[in-house]
Amino acid sequence: MATVGLNGINKVYPNGYHAVHDLTLNIQEGEFMVLVGPSGCGKTTVLRMVAGLEDISDGELRIGERVVNDVEPKDRDIAMVFQNYALYPHMTVAENIGFALKLRKMPKAEIRKKVEEAAEILGLTEWLDRKPKQLSGGQRQRVAMGRAIVREPSVFLMDEPLSNLDAKLRVKMRAEVRRIQQRLGVATIYVTHDQIEAMTMGDRVAVLKDGRLQQCDTPQNLYDFPVNQFVGAFIGSPAMNLYKGQLMEGGRNLKIGSQTLELSDNVHIAHPSLASYANKEVTVGIRPEGLKAVSSDVPRSRALDVQVSLVEALGSELMVHFGLDATVVRLEDVQDDEEEILTQGGEGVARIEPSVSVKTGDRLRLEVDLEHLHFFDPTTGVGIY
Hints:
GO terms for molecular function: ABC-type transporter activity; ATP binding; ATP hydrolysis activity. The protein is an alpha+beta fold.
């Protein structure tokens, strides 16, 4: 087991493209660190530099007590699971899983035992004599993971290992990967573009954008205290609703479009820096789960009146897309591979109880969880706390 330390790591390609900027991260023994961010943010480049598959332009990389900038990949005592499997097509599943142990000249009986243990964990026991071409994509990925597990390395590196699995198996494998990693107690760096995967798996999550570290913290702290608008919009699904707002009457009231919310003392206690924004503009973040459908009896000072533009019934909840007369703050580069983080069905989205009777075109009053509002500087995007 070992720690991993990245100190001022940079990656500049020969064409001048600066892919990673001054990245400093420390991964402790046994810690599960997730790197997350939109496509092209540099997360896979970081992983490949740790693996030794990419040269480091500047900075220092340590694994344990060793500086490994110039150490060959095979001598770093790491195991990497790639997105594209990287299996040997002429070998059986058992031979693929045990190949690294064979290279170490481990006794055949011991290899077989370790392979069978890994296969049982990953649900591959009945496929051990098959060739990769006879397996589904999900089974091939599990073979690749088994090959890393049996090596018992000092560090695990995983590059979107679950991206080719179907949705049900992906959820199951998230728990399996986490359970295996905790049992082995090996420092793990896990790359994904899926922020739900990041939040459910990581001890800590590092959010990257344009090759720069935005924030590294526990999943809950990222959700509760995003350091800037980018992190606020990226973490959480559906994404945080962002609007231009104005603090009125010395900061006692918050105007969003034509509607006004009254801020309690608790809001100012939680955000003392708001005092400097009195009678000024701010960017307001409201999470979809911070909105609750209520009757018209709830005072307008605690709610927003909206018009429903789309209703998605998910069984356990409703996703209600709505419009209101407010200016939406859009972060066009906050996106994953499949959809923009900010909804396109209207100017906001609320996550509400399935018992609410609502349809497209309805007027709806949404009570705002005022004590869990987020505020950002309208120029810099930095969180106001």
